[in-house]
Amino acid sequence: MDISTRTVFIAGATSGIGLALARRFAAAGSTVVVGGRRTDLLAGAAAEGFATVTVDVTDGDSVDRARDTVLRDHPGLDTVVTMSGVMIPEDLRDPAHFGAARQTVDTNLLGTIRVIDAFTPHLIARGGGTVVTVTSGIAFLPFPPMPTYAATKAAVHAYSEALRAQLDGTGVEVSELVPPAVAVTPEHARANPRALGLDAFADEVMDLLGADPTPHEILVEGVRMHRWAERDGTYDELVAQRSQALSMLPGR
Ligand SMILES: NC(=O)c1ccc[n+]([C@@H]2O[C@H](COP(=O)([O-])OP(=O)(O)OC[C@H]3O[C@@H](n4cnc5c(N)ncnc54)[C@H](OP(=O)(O)O)[C@@H]3O)[C@@H](O)[C@H]2O)c1
């Protein structure tokens, strides 16, 4: 895609990867609407010059209101990024994890579907555009401390594939961003020294997104070992390695 001419809505751009990509799209010349729940961070984004909209992707009415606002102010919207996500550790030996599982499904999977449903008719009607979904290396190589997270990201991968097939011929393309571990805060960097730096990751993503045609999957170098572990025969060994992280769960 031409990253310099787009009108982009990013649901989940108040912080982290979403905000980093919003800044890069804007720096390249695109117009960006930043969405999320935290009003203080939305105000910060507005002060940087972004259009902003409040949206809670777990609430269908909120998503529809956000869609109406975005399309009223930006009728030429051509790109939707479903970035909103939560990442919650769960101990499956304790049924009390269910609340976290529900929140994870409602945000990461159903939230993605709500946002796509809200904007797909507009993109089809204008005869073209791009939906960027967001999964994770964990969609392809489980990280056992975050089971429902992994399940939702694998589900969004499958959903993205089906969406691409269903939208074939409409001009609307679907691209799946597959981040590896990315240090979005100093605490993340300390907790996982192997996580990619946010700036390096975002730069690599924009280079890949800028290809024509837009790749079906945005795979930075650092995620390819996860994405292709099964094909490469490293899957069992890597899952065993990653299971050592179960010690991070309280009580283990
Ligand atoms: N960082 C990583 O290592 C990594 C790796 C793989 C994939 N990812 C994925 O990348 C995406 C961004 O994560 P991040 O690491 O940048 O974390 P982050 O800084 O916590 O960003 C998460 C974003 O999602 C939004 N969000 C959460 N719940 C929402 C809701 N109910 N409604 C609307 N927005 C909601 C947050 O905005 P508000 O709180 O303001 O609503 C925030 O803007 C997520 O989908 C995550 O799963 C991250």
UniProtKB/TrEMBL annotation:
Keyword Oxidoreductase: yes
UniProt xrefs under InterPro entries: NAD(P)-bd_dom_sf, Sc_DH/Rdtase_CS, SDR_fam
Pfam family, one: adh_short
SUPFAM superfamilies the UniProt entry points to: NAD(P)-binding Rossmann-fold domains
Gene Ontology molecular-function annotations: oxidoreductase activity
UniProt keywords, alphabetically: Oxidoreductase
Matches recorded under PROSITE patterns: ADH_SHORT
Domain of life: Bacteria
Family: Belongs to the short-chain dehydrogenases/reductases (SDR) family.
Protein name: Short-chain dehydrogenase involved in D-alanine esterification of teichoic acids
Native species: Actinacidiphila rubida
Biological classification of the source: Bacteria, Bacillati, Actinomycetota, Actinomycetes, Kitasatosporales
